[in-house]
Amino acid sequence: MTVIWQKIVSTISDKTMVIDQHIKTLINTIHEQGHQALIVGGAVRDFLLNEVFQDIDIATNMPLEDLQKLYPNSQMIQKDNQNITLVINLNDQKVEVSRFRKEIYEDGILKVEFVDDYIDDCERRDFTINSFAYDIKEGLIDPYNAEADLKAKRLVMINNPIIRINEDHSRLYRALYFAAKYNFTLDTRLRDSINSFTFKFNETCNPNYLIKFFAQPYFNEVYNAVEPLFIDLTDGYMSEIIESDQTLITDKHSLLYYLIFKQHLSLSSKLMSLLHFKKRELQYIENHYQSIIKLSSLITFEWMANIIVQNGIHTIETLLHTLSKYKLIHHQNIEIFNDIKDHYYLSIDELAISIADISMDISIKEKYSILKQVQYFVMTSELVNEEYALMAFINSLSDT
Fold it and tell me: Of 121, 152, 183, which marks where a domain is finished?
């Protein structure tokens, strides 16, 4: 294989990356086929930061269809109808092998174009610290001089941050996450770009991103740098907070907890898995769990009934169990849930009517949504579970 990396091999470290022998064999197999193979992504970054790394990603210019023939039990992943990643199980360790490629956005639609050179491939990566690659023969590769950013603990986005964030909003939240996890400062251009965005919390902000962000050890430092963004994210919600809540919304943390644990809990059933953080990652939330308990104490019977209807009783039961495990939920919430479960809950199948009884000229999805409304009103005793009463309610909807 022709070596083309000397001009960009970094001097950041003379350390040798310790690679599992099965992964070395895979890389050498690709080399023997006349193609390049590099270790890329988080493993290289964490190696340089002296962090523990587990998942190994490999980038290559070898057609993945050809590689799959050598590893017939592997699994292909597609994007834009192209085979871009091959997942190979090596000694019970899953390794993702991806093609060198460019990612081009046209009118908001992502297009994939394969390339033969890693320099072209790494241009699609989000931050310079994620552009490192490692060649098992030649050592570290640093196309964007990320060595300087790593030493300065500075997070820099590759190319224009405004354009890159507009292409994919998740890049903004990944910037916050990485900075808060590794105690990096945001590059001036990146910070100013983030603060220039005018997102609305419930339109473009996935609560799951923020929960991960909050759990990082250097959350406060990063939050203070991008406070204008959060002021905009939360803009408009203060007017929705009822008077009894306002005594609890005393600072930025309280408001953000309010938005996530009250306004968006029903939209974020994945919170169950997100709360299974390692102990150190939970530290920030644990330090503030009293505030969360106070906020969660505001949850009413009606609100609990609504999230049960929207997410299913078993989902909410598991969620409450997880919150309770980490002392992130008020005992009154458990009592409300148990009261609903034991005395008020009924499934859609237990209603006196079915979806077939709704004769309105609307979609099945809309009919199902109406049944959920009926379920909620029966659970909250606003309707009796009798056919005549439920049909009268549905007919009143069609009249409007």
Answer: 152
